[in-house]
Design a protein that fits this description.
There is one protein chain. This protein has 10 helices and no strands. With 185 residues, the chain is mainly α. Helix 2 runs antiparallel to helix 3 and helix 5 runs antiparallel to helix 6. The longest helix is centred in the middle third of the chain and has 19 residues. The chain is globular and about 50 Å long.
């Protein structure tokens, strides 16, 4: 049920995902310790779901709990913890909490600069998310430069035609509001 709920969340079928995720959370909470990675994954997913539903405070609380729990259970630099930190920073940005998002992105990028972890592409992705945040906050030129640097790094790591590199180009288009003709189709 947890995998299906996560898949439905990824497909943005929130009405179908929510009851499944809540049921899995209830079962895992009754059987697993608070710091168990399987429970923390559901907490993270519930945070993402709350954010998509516009329940920003709830989403932030859940993503923070997932991040804090993952730091204890898996270590502060584990890729799933980094994922929770990035989701939290993105939510802060989308919810208009710009100063908090600036701090969250700075801490996240510093952490990734120390140790890229088992997903080296994650640093470029987080950098692009930070650039999108900068653009949202009216720092368009800074945001564009940040995303362009992230695209260059991702191209080096994954190749210029990789889906992750393409996603960063979409973020650049979103940040500037000027999608290339090929991507407007």
């Amino acid at each position: 049920m947890g995998l299906l709920g996560s898949l439905l969340l990824g497909l943005r079928d929130l009405d179908a995902a929510e009851p499944l995720l809540l049921e899995v959370h209830r079962h895992r909470r009754a059987r697993l310790p608070d710091q168990h990675p399987s429970l923390l994954q559901i907490v993270h997913n519930l945070g993402a779901l709350a954010a998509l539903r516009g329940r920003y405070d709830e989403g932030l609380a859940l993503l923070t709990a997932a991040s804090d729990g993952r730091a204890v259970a898996l270590g502060p630099r584990h890729s799933t913890r980094i994922g929770s930190l990035l989701s939290r920073a993105n939510l802060l940005s989308r919810s208009g909490r710009s100063a908090e998002a600036d701090t969250a992105y700075a801490e996240l990028l510093a952490l990734l600069a120390e140790d890229g972890g088992d997903r080296p592409w994650l640093q470029a992705h987080a950098q692009a998310c930070s650039g999108l945040h900068q653009a949202r906050g009216g720092r368009l030129d800074e945001g564009r430069r940040t995303i362009e640097a992230a695209i260059e790094r991702m191209s080096e790591l994954e190749g210029p035609d990789h889906p992750r590199t393409h996603r960063l180009r979409q973020m650049l288009a979103e940040a500037t509001g000027l999608a290339p003709a090929a991507e407007r189709r």
